[in-house]
Amino acid sequence: MTAPGTFTPQPGPAPLPRMIRAQATLETRMLLRNGEQLLLTVIIPSLLLVLFSSVDIVDTGSDGKTVDFLAPGVLALAVLSTAFTGQAIATGFERRYGVLKRLGASPLPRWALMTAKTCSVLVTEVLQIALLTVIALALGWSPHGNPLTVALLLLLGTAAFSGLGLLMAGTLKAEATLAAANLVFLLLLVGGGVIVSLDKFPDAVRAVLQLLPISALSDGLRDVLRDGAGVPWGDLGILAVWAVLGLGAAARWFRWE
């Protein structure tokens, strides 16, 4: 039996917070080094914001400046691209190649691995939102409302999209996840109130689209940031329901291999 202090450092797993922090840092670095992910999470939202704010292409249904309508919707799109599309694709291929299985057998608990992935998503979103905010302000954006309400909308939106993304990645094959995640991204870009006002859709269609998480997030952000409204409880409620359903379903049916 060896005496205490014989081995330096002491054998054994690192403290849990340190393991989560290290895994989150690794996940963030991998995401930022991925050109396809950067295209999806940074370049596309930035180009949409600049293009549709500078050129009169889409009737936003707003009497004010176009950028005041578009900026909240593009912020919602940034959350969708990172928390749902990007995370679903990356996690799906990690599952296919056995990365998740190996990480699940490490001293890092599986719930802590998902926590690290969530932290990576949040860090990426902070960078996205900072960049998009600077671009929107340069285009003449005049935001209003309570920043805490905006933060709550973004956090609930992240939870909702993360749950749906993990559910897709943990139940479908990687190739199917890739196709489905990109298709959903495009459909929600058009029908989620991001760049086209939901008022442009027929009443029956609009009633359904308003229940989608992207619509609730973009409408809620627009009510606060453009109109200076208070807490949009209806939109928060929709996001909360999607978050509970998505995360619950992901926890129930996610397969690690």
Layout of strands and helices, then pairs:
Layout: H1 16-33, H2 35-54, H3 66-96, H4 99-104, H5 110-138, H6 147-171, H7 174-191, H8 203-209, H9 213-225, H10 233-253
Helix pairs in contact: 1-5, 2-3, 2-5, 3-5, 3-6, 3-7, 3-9, 6-9, 6-10, 9-10
Account of the protein in words:
It contains 10 helices and no strands. Helix 2 runs antiparallel to helix 3. It has helices spanning 16-33, 35-54, 66-96, 99-104, 110-138, 147-171, 174-191, 203-209, 213-225, 233-253. By secondary structure, it is an all-alpha fold.
In a few lines, what is going on in this structure?
It is a multi-pass membrane protein. With 257 residues, this protein is an all-alpha fold. The chain is built from 10 helices and no strands.
Tags for this entry?
single chain; 257 residues; mainly alpha; elongated; ABC_2_transport; membrane; transmembrane helix; transmembrane
Over the alpha carbons, how many angstroms does the gyration radius reach? 20 Å
How many β-strand runs?
0
H/E element string? HHHHHHHHHH
Give the helix level as a range of percent: over 70%
Q: Please, what is the average pLDDT? A: 87
How large is the count of helical segments?
10
What is the global morphology? elongated
Structural class: mainly alpha
Proportion of residues in extended strands = under 5%
Ranges where pLDDT stays below 50 over 5 or more residues in a row are none
Q: Characterize the largest beta sheet: strand count, sense, and whether it forms a barrel.
A: none
Distance between the termini: 39 Å
Membrane topology: Multi-pass membrane protein
Main location: membrane
Protein name: ABC transporter permease
Subcellular location: Membrane
